[in-house]
Amino acid sequence: MRRVRLEELEGASLLQSGFWGALKQAFGWRAWGFEGEGGQVLVLTRRLPGGMDLAYLPHPWEAVETRLRTGGWMVARLREIASLMERKPLFFRVDLPWEEGPPRGVLRKAPTDIQPPSTVLIDLRFSDEELLSSMHHKTRYNLRLAQKKGVVVREEGEEALPLWYRMYEETARRDRIAIHSFEYYAHLFRLARTWEGPKPRVVLFMAYHGGEPLAGNIVALYRDRAVYLYGASRSQKRNLMPTYLLQWEAMQWARGEGAVDYDLYGIPPRPDPSHPMYGLYRFKTGFGGRIVHRAGCWDLPLSPLYGLYRTAERVRDVYYKRVRKLFRR
């Protein structure tokens, strides 16, 4: 195992690229690149209260052989990485990219997943007719309705980001989701222009009706996979189904740019009508494709203080999910 510069770090996926490390480094993380058995890997570290670091790996070793996907192999690689870091972290937290999890033992299941474990992958190596036929009939109807009603999708530049972000703020209020500052998304586009290493093509697609903006998606194409990163929509004219046409046009664009698949990035783990994001599940799975259930987040403790950190996490979780609701107006 050896250290590599972020500009040299290609990684198997967008979240394992030096580009992604540089993005996160601009907003409070420190990014490290390593190369060894299993390929390249990005590690993000952050200082914890008390002066220790946590180390986080988003979807590392995605392309590693199945026979190596064991807790023992991964633990050995993580310990190698720790030996090369300036400060030994309190623990490693790893969002596994595989559908199978490591055997329990040294690794412990993390209390929360950072990246959504479940997603929908659309195979783009098919004709339009085949892609449409694989969709739920209601999804086909909705995207054709948008076309019939005159919704138009355009690829926009960075100058449209302020308009998109205002819609994103509206989406966050309506759906009660957390979002980054405007600067985060602006930096994403700037970095996609200026980064000197392997980088994605980042595109903003906007849907209009009669010149009025209705919705917008940010999509990144890295290597042969397009990823739907962020989506915003207004509450007005939702009956025109602009979000359906946006996804379809993004898939068309991605295929034309050489993408093999399109990652809709994040769904609830099961079709549970009581889940607060059940509508998102129906929306994304309606496009067909393959539902992937990854193994989620796992921890490798490196210090006896790890147990104290887990206790603090549980207390914080109780506060944010239960206690704070009592005071919400």
From TrEMBL:
Tell me which Pfam families the record gives: FemAB
Specify whether Cell membrane is a keyword of the entry: no
A GO biological-process term? cell wall organization
Question: Which UniProt key words apply to this protein?
Answer: Acyltransferase, Cell shape, Cell wall biogenesis/degradation, Peptidoglycan synthesis, Transferase
Q: Which domain of life is it from?
A: Bacteria
Q: Which GO terms describe its molecular function?
A: aminoacyltransferase activity
The record's InterPro entries line, in alphabetical order, gives:
Acyl_CoA_acyltransferase (IPR016181), FEMABX (IPR003447), PG_Glycine_Bridge_Synth (IPR050644)
Family, according to the entry, reads as follows:
Belongs to the FemABX family.
Q: Which PANTHER family match?
A: LIPID II:GLYCINE GLYCYLTRANSFERASE
Name listed for the protein in its UniProt record: Methicillin resistance protein
Give the species.
Answer: Winmispira thermophila (strain ATCC 700085 / DSM 6578 / Z-1203)
